[in-house]
Amino acid sequence: MEDITIKGKRIQREFIILMICVLVAFGINIYSIITYQTPWVELWTYLPTVILFGIMIYLLLGALRSLVYVIRKVFIKKRTMK
Known about the structure:
83% helix; 82 residues; elongated; mainly alpha
């Protein structure tokens, strides 16, 4: 069985992408507070939900990135076979 090594640069990039997703979720929460004119205390009381929503965005983005990777591999393979 081979050891899998993940480079620090890759971990750092994934962490930055995760933080961007959480910030997007936080921004959506701020937008909804402004739109529906709810109390600003919801910014902190819904923080666990916002973090979970950010993780959900990250997972959906990861699935999309994986799909793009697979599609690119298939088309690159087809181009080299010609």
